[in-house]
Write a structure and sequence with these properties.
alpha/beta; binds nicotinamide-adenine-dinucleotide; single chain; elongated; 300 residues
């Protein structure tokens, strides 16, 4: 499997946000092991040191840019820095994210809500906008991978804002399907993994599901991300990832879209059918009236 991915990813430039964290760091290390080049973006300055150690492992394999992605103008700067460093970009992984520290309804003001929407939703959308325009202008094929979550598929209580941003990210990913085959935008939706995000968040670490099932190694998420990057049959899709299972496409939105479309079409047909039948009856009455007038011996 790794040999197939190596053949596809060798020499490719991958910009990874949240590269200092559990999943992002594991992804960058794996990519460099496959001879790809990585550009590490994170608010944590540790990315500089991480890029250095990756460069020691494989010369010229890593660059970095430290910034807060909540400030959306920083995203263009991060992208431009990657271009300046490597000359081009092939893949963007929107992986930086945070979880809410407590239920939305226990928060005294809107500050955490605003931050979570910025980092989990606005930043990936803005980075995708920049990447798609770049791929088009440079006439290059490209891939975007968004890190969503099972929290975007299962409405988990007390994770209202986290789950809502991830559900929106899955939906956004689906809306980008029409960009394929030249540009593929995919997402992964992992079950909980052993990373600093979980270790430092009491809501997640004490979640009954986590207590009952345990945590996945980040490597499991990395494998799904590689599939999202390399498998051309995956486009506009979200791959679920959990322990003991292979990554699987989420089918939820296909069925929902069919339901909604048939509901709208049925309603429209019904509405116009009744208007049309009234019109038809009026036209028929008019025609019969006119024929009667023309008929020999017709009443005048
Ligand atoms: N760990 C899990 O159980 C799990 C499950 C499903 C989805 N995810 C998602 O995976 C992604 C990575 O999570 P992780 O578990 O590795 O978490 P993590 O906390 O270990 O890493 C997240 C990284 O994002 C960076 N980051 C946060 N806010 C930022 C900002 N404003 N600007 C720039 N960088 C910022 C952090 O500094 C950190 O390095 C997140 O999007 C998360 O929602 C995680």
């Amino acid at each position: 499997m790794d040999d197939n991915y190596r053949a596809q990813l060798q020499g490719k430039v991958v910009l990874v946000t949240g590269a200092a964290g559990g999943i992002g760091k594991a992804l960058c290390e794996h990519l460099v092991g496959l001879d790809a080049k990585v550009f590490l973006v994170d608010v944590n300055q540790r990315v500089e040191q991480q890029a250095e150690s990756l460069n020691q492992e494989r010369a010229d394999s890593a660059g970095w840019f430290a910034c807060d992605l909540c400030q959306l103008q920083n995203i263009q700067q991060a992208f431009d820095s990657a271009l300046a460093h490597f000359g081009h970009v092939d893949i963007v992984v929107n992986n930086a994210g945070i979880a809410n520290s407590r239920s939305l309804f226990s928060q005294p003001d809107h500050s955490e809500l605003e931050q979570i929407v910025r980092i989990n939703l606005l930043a990936p959308m803005e980075a995708t906008r920049i990447a798609v325009r770049y791929f088009r202008d440079a006439k290059r094929t490209g891939v975007v991978v968004n890190t969503a979550s099972v929290g975007g598929l299962l409405p988990l209580s007390v994770m209202e804002s986290y789950g809502t941003t991830k559900a929106a990210l899955i939906f956004f990913t689906r809306t980008c399907r029409s960009l394929a085959p030249l540009i593929r935008v995919n997402a992964v939706a992992p079950y909980f993994a052993r990373t600093p995000l979980v270790a430092t968040n009491r809501i997640v670490s004490q979640y009954p599901l986590v207590q009952a099932v345990g945590l996945m190694p980040p490597a499991k998420v990395v494998r799904a991300m590689l599939k999202a990057m390399c498998d051309e049959s995956v486009c506009g899709d979200t791959l679920m990832v959990s322990m003991g299972c292979r990554p699987a496409k989420v089918a939820f939105y296909d069925e929902l879209a069919l339901d909604v479309t048939s509901y709208i079409v049925k309603g429209t047909v019904r509405k116009y059918a009744s208007a049309f039948s009234k019109l038809f009856m009026r036209a028929l009455d008019g025609t019969i009236g006119a024929l009667r007038k023309r008929a020999p011996g017709a009443e005048t």
